[in-house]
């Protein structure tokens, strides 16, 4: 039993699916029994009114049938219930019930029962007021210093205060500048109403000022009638608290002074009668309700504050005195007296959980039984210890989960269909004059044990698309230790998916030559289906055409061990070059030749690569400028709309002054800019696809040039291709620049001083691409001088490597890109970039991931 948990004295649950708020709970001797015992009055938004008189047989009992004195279903939702002297000619207590469009005052009376069913209680309507405006909340008190009776003030949702002198309507006043209603309370010492406006200000209005102010019913009359109808309503005092208020309570535990308590969303305020702050307390949790209930010492006030963490805190001014746990989030809290038990805390939740509780703890009469002592058998303990040590040793040797079982738990395999689909599943069936094919990939998941929530994700690089890229299996496989596992499966797609046979071209702007250490292989055996097999004279040349029209030509030398790939567009070279190397490796593996190797001895085509980078960066800058311009035009469009709306709402319309023409022109500009942004995004996507193709080609050539291992090529790919998608917030240029700078200052650094430099932790779009191009050039230079790529900082000493004859070292003092002539003019031409807008298809392994 926790000391800090509220002790349940009596509790019940009200109805089913009913809702309640802070005004739905009230404690008072509503039946005028005269014994000083409170009754619990609860109203709900479903229109139910209930009155309880709890008397549990023992602590913690639930509600008994006789605890419910009265239950009545009213036709309208109950917004608030209050008990006071609301009927003229008597000082008996009556019940006031506030509905959205009605105020009803009832008399609750009990009849002594002569049988075992107990007393009978009745609810009698004394009078009612039909409201012309929708009510929000109400307060009551002896307005104007009247004796022996209470008046009621109702606040409507549009900020009007309606005062009722018991059975008659007195007057109504609009609060100045009211937008949304706030909590309302009445201070009898200052004879004023205190509320919190939508401006987050605590405002006080004198009752006398309200009574003599302009009548709300005359608010729409002419200006001349307004001047003679009353005084202007002014605020007595105001205090800005900077947040919305949840509730207001005014207490006075002595005759000399009173305090205004305001519960905000994050703070708790105590104000003096004149609006000055007495103290405030910043709350740690979001509050839900509060109640100042007593003063235990001179000048201090105790307050109950409930919060949304099911806690009820007891504060003495700003000092936390006690914290107790509740079984629900309270929306209303009261303190009452039941059966001579004073200080019972009554809480109500928004779903109807009503509880009477008290603080502290109950004495525990439980005593732990004595444990029977028994003698220990040390021989049996030794045997058991040896057995446990044997089991631990076996488990350590085999592992907690054997590797062969781990591998067999879940197996993912993929099988690509040998033929294209008879009916293409592509969204865009045609690209120009070409028909876009589709192919079916069958993915098989084999599991040994049952697992829930297994996700299969499939990714392809653009412009390839999938009909479905996410699959979820409710019950498939599960790792016994509960740790998540990821299994990957890579597979290749046929080249004909995006590439068709084409006519070879003798001339091209961009050419590459790949050297091998074996005799050239017939292109017919490497690329079956891409050439006319009856034409034996053309076995050393082959043409490829991408979907959309781009042409690539592949030539095999008859006299040397070289292959040339040429195209009008630089980025188109990667796919065919990569496919050629993979097929050559597969061909010689089937022949049993293991020493086959490819190399690249030409000049690294950085100039063409840099032009693609500049084009991509220019589109990013254009997109940023277009978005800024679109934002400005959107702000201008909304400003014109607001001005036009003000003109149209005015009772005396003024000339539009060509605002409608300006609105129409701004609208056309917004539409044009939105189209331009959308077009630029499409061009940026195509440019990023071409840039990734060119980046793959540069990485491939660097690997062949320096004979890099698979791990080193993986480091280059991680540095040059960190993003799958390019966005304005995080782009390719700044990400790659940071990654290459890290490599230059770690594994490719020349001295320890470079390793000590710290890189910027913030990635922002650069002003230009000169810094990135310098770093890429410097990376190639460091690799040419023997630098070695590795992930550890303490890289080994640079290894002496023989540079290819066609690669000229780049001086570090001159980091600008420059053109370099080729070594073999008969096989290479100087590359020149050709600007193109055709998207480059990019094919790589599909990757399926299951979790």
TrEMBL record:
Domain PTHB1 N-terminal: 1-363
InterPro entries: PHTB1_GAE_dom, PHTB1_N_dom, PTHB1, PTHB1_CtH_dom, PTHB1_hp_dom, PTHB1_pf_dom
Gene Ontology, cellular component aspect: BBSome; membrane
Chain residue ranges for the region called Disordered: 811-851
Coiled coil: 371-398
Gene Ontology BP term (one): cilium assembly
Domain (PTHB1 platform): residue spans on this chain: 494-601
PTHB1 C-terminal helix bundle domain sequence ranges: 708-783
Superkingdom classification of source: Eukaryota
Keyword Coiled coil applies: yes
Pfam families to which the protein is assigned, alphabetical: PHTB1_N, PTHB1_CtH, PTHB1_GAE, PTHB1_hp, PTHB1_pf
Keywords, comma-separated and alphabetical: Coiled coil
PTHB1 GAE domain residues: 434-477
Domain PTHB1 hairpin stretches: 604-706
Name this protein carries in UniProt: Bardet-Biedl syndrome 9
Organism name: Sciurus vulgaris
